[in-house]
């Protein structure tokens, strides 16, 4: 089992533990704001399980029906997380509305706040771990899970501060109002996550900065060629597909053209881990006098 799968399984364990802690905090206080925090933790469990499934599928080798592999499964997991987050936000809004109509006092606030703080600290630490390894291993599923947990941390801190204000001021209406604000924040987070994941499913290319770096590498390492044009990229989970046309002199042999392509492929793969490079070689009369000029 590779590290990304281990981290995904760890997320399930952490999510279940924090869920129990937050529901206990709600039970001892009766705070609808703490209930909203606990409801979001249910989504944490579901999204952690989705990440486990997505990583398992994405690691399956390419086959006859999926010659480019299964790495996009991680984007499906991230989209699902976004949908579940939106669902959680709507559930929180429902609870907040009911509490706004019939506000109730908060019981044993000190114990509830202390217990809730433990869950928040655990989530913050694990979100940092997921973010680090998600970027290191270029895993959309781990990154989505980490960002979701960090959103949960932000809302949890807001909830804990708000519940403390309710206790200090005695204004019970602050509790459901705070829960409503949490729901809106969660809703915005879910929308952003879905938008980013859908871009991945639609074959979004590399950033402008990364493209500029690729062009510079091609220009500096294509000695023997004339130009490169029609550079295209697309990202699919940890994989990055790079393709372009390479114009070589008309009298170049197949071996000479192949050597140039091999050199470029080594350089690009060294710069972009898990890159799949496709180079289409063209004769000199196909040059477009644009694109990447070989130095």
TrEMBL record:
Pfam family, any one: Cation_efflux
Family the entry assigns: Belongs to the cation diffusion facilitator (CDF) transporter (TC 2.A.4) family.
InterPro entries: Cation_efflux, Cation_efflux_CTD, Cation_efflux_CTD_sf, Cation_efflux_TM, Cation_efflux_TMD_sf, CDF_Transporter
GO BP annotation list: intracellular zinc ion homeostasis
UniProt keyword annotations, A-Z: Cell membrane, Membrane, Transmembrane, Transmembrane helix, Transport
NCBIfam families xref list: CDF (TIGR01297)
Any one cellular-component term (Gene Ontology): plasma membrane
Residue span(s) of domain Cation efflux protein transmembrane: 11-202
Organism encoding this protein: Lichenibacterium ramalinae
The keyword tRNA processing appears for this protein: no
Subcellular location: Cell membrane
Transmembrane spans: 7-26, 38-55, 75-94, 106-129, 149-170
PANTHER family, alphabetized: MITOCHONDRIAL METAL TRANSPORTER 1-RELATED
MF term (GO), any: ferrous iron transmembrane transporter activity
Domain Cation efflux protein cytoplasmic as annotated: residue spans: 207-284
The keyword Cell membrane belongs to this UniProt entry's keyword annotation: yes
Topology versus the membrane: Multi-pass membrane protein
Protein name: Protein p34
Domain of life the protein comes from: Bacteria
């Amino acid at each position: 089992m590779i590290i990304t799968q281990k981290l995904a399984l760890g997320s399930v364990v952490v999510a279940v533990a924090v869920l129990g802690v937050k529901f206990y905090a709600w039970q001892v206080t009766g705070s609808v704001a703490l209930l909203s925090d606990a409801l979001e933790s249910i989504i944490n469990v579901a999204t952690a399980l989705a990440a486990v499934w997505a990583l398992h599928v994405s690691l399956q080798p390419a086959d006859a029906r999926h010659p480019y592999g299964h790495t996009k499964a991680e984007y499906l997991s991230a989209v699902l997380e976004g949908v579940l987050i939106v669902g959680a936000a709507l559930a929180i809004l429902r609870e907040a509305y009911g509490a706004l109509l019939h506000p109730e006092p908060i019981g044993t606030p000190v114990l509830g706040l202390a217990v809730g703080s433990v869950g928040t600290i655990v989530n913050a630490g694990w979100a940092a771990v997921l973010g680090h390894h998600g970027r290191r291993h270029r895993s959309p599923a781990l990154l989505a899970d980490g960002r979701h947990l960090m959103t949960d941390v932000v809302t949890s801190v807001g909830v804990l501060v708000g519940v403390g204000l309710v206790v200090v001021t005695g204004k019970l209406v602050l509790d459901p109002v705070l829960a409503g604000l949490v729901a809106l924040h969660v809703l915005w987070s879910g929308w952003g996550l879905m938008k980013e994941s859908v871009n991945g499913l639609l074959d979004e290319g590399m950033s402008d900065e990364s493209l500029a770096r690729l062009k510079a590498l091609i220009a500096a390492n294509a000695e023997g060629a004339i130009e490169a044009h029609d550079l295209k990229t697309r990202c699919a989970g940890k994989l990055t597909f790079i393709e372009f046309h390479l114009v070589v002199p008309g009298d170049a042999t197949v071996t000479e053209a192949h050597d140039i392509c091999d050199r470029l492929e080594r350089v690009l793969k060294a710069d972009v881990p898990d890159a799949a490079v496709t180079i289409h070689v063209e004769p000199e009369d196909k040059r477009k006098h644009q694109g990447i000029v070989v130095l």
